[in-house]
Structure to design on (293 residues):
């Protein structure tokens, strides 16, 4: 059984840990507040640029862009996967969920050439250990100072690979921010676009009938817009993932703080019981000694 000294040391240790988790929770909450503002500003633009693309593609079916090359499923030989994790841990299952989903996609495409583009230190460390031969590029320590050029670098990498037919598909995997207590795992196909857009057109055909006069040509405009769309979708995913990471960390640290409070309460109660037992034992010993005298 633990002594009073041991119990006191454990209580003090847990109190110190509680101070750390409580501080981390407040820091994550402050970062989340700022990240939410950025993602709320990015979402409307990301949605509108996709709507514009749908309109142009479905009203100019005779015009083609090299980005609309859409091989059949059995003809897909190579895939690029952009896997977005965090640079830090202590955020629950946030990073594990992304790694698990990425591994599932790799397993589903067994036999195909896979290139992994790892964004975030945690994802890169995981795949460097388990599947180092699949890593094409890595972007770590970018979230604290993330800028739009980060997404542009990734866009140029996958867009050039798609144009040169190094990739038949480009997939994006990330956690989308829903609320402070909820994140949704997203698997999105960035390239090619045509199949996804046609399906959405069939669901809402009236949305894509706006008349547009395109200069200099639909093909040129489509190519530039598709690259811009891939760019903004990657940027949005970076913002979504960062917001979701801070929300997950805030929740995890809140739970850790609550658990520390419970442990402190239980250990304090045990400490007082133990102290009471020692006092009772000492009184009995003194009384026995007095009687003996």
């Amino acid at each position: 059984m633990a002594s009073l000294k041991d119990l006191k040391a454990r209580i003090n240790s847990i109190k110190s840990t509680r101070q750390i988790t409580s501080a981390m929770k407040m820091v994550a909450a402050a970062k989340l507040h700022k990240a939410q503002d950025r993602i709320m500003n990015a979402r409307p633009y990301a949605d509108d640029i996709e709507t514009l693309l749908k309109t142009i593609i479905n009203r100019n079916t005779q015009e083609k862009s090299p980005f609309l090359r859409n091989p059949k499923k059995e003809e897909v030989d190579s895939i690029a996967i952009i896997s977005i994790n965090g640079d830090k841990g202590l955020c629950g299952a946030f990073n594990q969920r992304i790694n698990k989903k990425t591994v599932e996609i790799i397993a589903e495409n067994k036999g195909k050439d896979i290139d992994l583009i790892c964004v975030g230190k945690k994802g890169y460390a995981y795949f460097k250990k388990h599947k180092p031969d699949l890593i094409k590029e890595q972007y770590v320590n970018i979230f604290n100072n993330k800028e739009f050029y980060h997404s542009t670098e990734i866009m140029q990498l996958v867009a050039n690979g798609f144009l040169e037919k190094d990739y038949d598909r480009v997939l994006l995997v990330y956690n989308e921010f829903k609320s402070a207590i909820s994140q949704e795992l997203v698997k999105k196909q960035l390239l090619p676009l045509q199949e996804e857009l046609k399906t959405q057109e069939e669901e809402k055909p009236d949305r894509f009938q706006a008349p547009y006069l395109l200069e200099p040509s639909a093909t040129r405009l489509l190519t530039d817009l598709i690259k811009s769309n891939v760019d903004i979708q990657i940027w949005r995913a970076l913002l979504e993932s960062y917001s979701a990471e801070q929300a997950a960390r805030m929740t995890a640290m809140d739970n850790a703080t609550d658990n520390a409070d419970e442990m402190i309460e239980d250990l304090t109660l045990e400490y007082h019981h133990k102290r009471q037992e020692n006092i009772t034992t000492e009184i009995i010993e003194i009384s026995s000694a007095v009687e003996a005298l």
The beta strands are 78-84, 113-119, 135-139, 169-179, 182-191.
